[in-house]
Amino acid sequence: MSGYWVVLAFVVACWSAAYLGTRAVARWLDEALDGPELAGALRGLRRVGYAVVTAAVLAGWRVVDGDAVVADALTAAGTTAVLGSASTVASVRAAAVVVALGGVWLGGVLAVALATVSYRRRAREYDLTHRFVVRWLLSRGGGSVAVVGVAVLVVSTVPPGVPRLAAVLALAAGTMLVLPYTLAVALRARPATSAERRVVADVLPDDVTLRVVDDRTRIGPAFAAGTPPGPEYVFVTAAVFDVCTDAGVRAVVAHEVAHHRHRHVAVRFGAVVAGVLPVLAAVEFGLDLPAWGVLVSVPYVLAVAWVFRRTEFTADAAAARAVGADALVAAFDALVEQRLVLTGTTRMTSLFAVHPTIEARKRRLVAFSR
Fold first, then answer.
1. Which one has a higher pLDDT value, 353 or 102?
2. Is the peptide bond before 205 cis (omega within 30 degrees of 0)?
3. Which tens digits make up the pLDDT trace of 133-154?
4. 119-129 in b/e burial notation, b at 16+ Cβ within 10 A?
5. Is 313 helix (H, G, I), strand (E, B) or coil?
6. What is the percent of the chain where pLDDT is above 70?
7. Which of 336, 120, 323 shows the shortest CA–CA distance to 243?
8. Phi, psi (deg, nearest 5) at residue 126
9. What's the rounded Cα separation, in Å, for the pair 124 and 121?
């Protein structure tokens, strides 16, 4: 069997196993749980499924030698003859491998998501179709894979060592700066209506742009994106305007604006880069990563999660000062009731969570209001 057919068989097996396995577990959860508990369990199932798919794709790709198959396909297509220089050929091959590997991974992620659609529809009581999930994941995931492929193509043409590390950092920083624009397209976010802008006029500065996101994306009620010198956006799910009072909506938006005012987006970016950059440097300079590096990664991840949670508490306090703690607490209650925010977590998972639990946030807000 040729390499092409081996890879094809691997892809079909990976996608089929992801779909059938996830669907079987989702059916069992649907019989055992209901309502918010089922919604939370299905969210956890998808995350586990995505992790398993990622590990399986990376391991399987090496077993079937997917890199060699992609290189052979480019050679058969005459790409190497057209490109000329060896460095250019190597760059194109690296980018092609990333895109091909990303495509296989995206298909597995899509299989996991599709396997849970009917159960999620019942658990969270909102209109979710298979077509929407496909469009949503392809627009978001497909775009991400393409961006990474282009980044690999660009970075691999830069001389190795410090220049290449600098190029990686520049690309990462540039991506963060333009992220509000790309998210607005990927999420099909629309400009706020005049009525929506009036509700939040007193907490939304002129230099921060408000965009409203389709409810079905379920990316969370709201989030901030962008940092100077780029644009600063606040994305709010449309349902927030429907389920929260005007004071609650203002509190949610004030929370996200606080992320911008306290430069939390840049702080979070820096926290991630601080851990990733040494690893990239070690790989770039051909250094062997010590065995204890794996152990160090655990406290690093815990520290980054802690930083993220601190920024959430800081933004909550800022929103409480701007609108009132009671307004934000009421917004949390409304979002939980409508299952726009899911509750329930273990102590272990909360240590790795980038958002504090709703219960912890409400306790601090109640104390703040006293």
1. 102
2. no
3. 888 788 778 877 887 888 888 8
4. bbeebbeeebe
5. helix
6. 91
7. 336
8. -145, 160
9. 6
Q: Which residue has the tokens 């307004």?
A: 327
Which residue type, as a one-letter code, is found at position 87? S
Cα R_g (the chain), whole angstroms: 23
- pLDDT of 79 reads 67
Q: What is the pLDDT confidence band of residue 261, given thresholds at 50, 70 and 90?
A: very high
The DSSP string of 69-136 is HHHHHHHHTTHHHHH-SHHHHHHHHHHHHHHHHHHHHHHHHHHHHHHTHHHHHHHHTS---HHHHHHH
230-233 contacts at long range (C-beta below 8 A, 24 or more positions apart): 230/176, 230/177, 230/178, 230/179, 230/180, 231/180, 231/181, 232/180, 232/207, 232/208, 232/260, 233/180, 233/183, 233/184, 233/208, 233/209
Do residues 208 and 200 lie in contact, with contact meaning Cβ atoms separated by under 8 Å? Answer: no
Q: Which helix (H) or strand (E) holds 369?
A: helix 358-369
Q: Identify any residues that bridge with 88 across adjacent strands, giving them in sequence order.
A: none
* pTM score, whole prediction: 0.76
Q: What percent of the chain has pLDDT over 90?
A: 37
By DSSP bridging, strand 222-225 and strand 232-237 are: antiparallel
Residue 324 has pLDDT above 80, yes or no: yes
Tokens of 103: 């495509």
